[in-house]
Fold:
Amino acid sequence: MAKLTFHGGALSVTGANYLIETERTKVLVDCGMVQGSRHALEENYKPFPYEPSKIDALFITHAHVDHTGRVPKLVKDGFTGPIYATEPTVDLANVMLVDSQGLIESESKGERPPLYNEKDVEKTAVQFKPVKYRQEIRVNDDIRVRLQDAGHILGSAIIELWVRENGKETKFVFSGDLGNPPTPLLEPTEYIDEADYVVVETTYGDRLHEDKKQRKGLLENAVEDTITSGGTLMVPSFALERTQEILLELNELVENNRIPEVPVFMDSPLAIRATEVYKKHTNYFNKEARALIESGDELFNFPNLKFTLSVPESKAINDVPPPKVIMAGSGMSTGGRILHHEMRYLPDPASTILFIGYQGAGTIGRRISDGAESVKIYGTEVPVRCKVRSIGGYSAHADQDGLYGWIDNMRGGGKLKKVFCVQGEEEAASAFALRVRDRMAVDATVPQPGDVFNF
Structure:
């Protein structure tokens, strides 16, 4: 009997890790880092609840660390099989994992061996096998897989997985993270025609995003208001997709004279390196973005934009008087250079912090966005006196309506038996499962960590 086990991503936005087993074959979908708290760090160090050396193949939906961050540990612990992902995901994952390894080394502080080291990351890179959308991959005779465009970040994929037993095929669909179209860069999320079982992310399973048409205007207002007040606009940036989208929109605002001239700093080595990968894979962009490139427009460059790769360049930002705009990692203020800027400018009433993506429970970004009067950064209590803004329209995740419509399309095939709601906090996942049950009359459940489903 074949089975699906939820080894990560259940009742959690992060740590995606799903195991499909038949009598002959074992494959994983994603192997992500658990993020958001000290407890999460301990979770990552736990041994895998399966034998890595017995896994035949790993399929990666996209390059975010909550979907890839433990892959080098899997390799370190004995996994030698192929790691299938789209071409951009392979390139982005290599960038992300090198960065992750550096953070792990610094955080371990010699107190214990790091989760994995540089050699483990290098071994992992060799095992990656780039594939194209809609290319079929066969794992033995009982499992075949195809990747479709999720529209979440560059190269992100939906995993279609067929299991053959006793002459009959059962189809699973793993959403990965679904996009929030339309976006300035990417093609919209692809719809899947049919499935027996769906494993769907529910990060925003209990809410709707604001109108995407408003987001550029809200960004424009945030920049203009900060310039008027003579402050600093801090944008905690997610290295993949949100950063590139914001750069593209700032480019358009600057070129159309919709915002005054102001210094803009891209202060994230990871985002800078990721942007280089985006430039390499423009064939994955939508037709509008490709048309801009063909017209000679440099999508990720405009006057007064400075990329600060080195530490001295980053520190020199302090010498530039406001008003100015600083985009820096990490997106939830869990580490990176944004923390140094927050220590300096959170207490400044003339400044603004602008959140452009989901803020996970337990993160500094979540506490600030929830209205905390102060936050602790590097052991120092920092008062929050600056303005706090959020633009939900820049979320790279589908909202409740987007998720529902995507699943509803699969109901047309008449085969849909069950929906598993994962990669969301319990309240969001439960709300979405309730909507699916009530409106589709399809069984929907919120798996617990470690739950096993036999089929």
Summary: The CA atoms of residues 191 and 198 lie 13 Å apart. Residues 3-207+396-454 form a domain with the Metallo-beta-lactamase; Chain A fold (CATH 3.60.15.10).
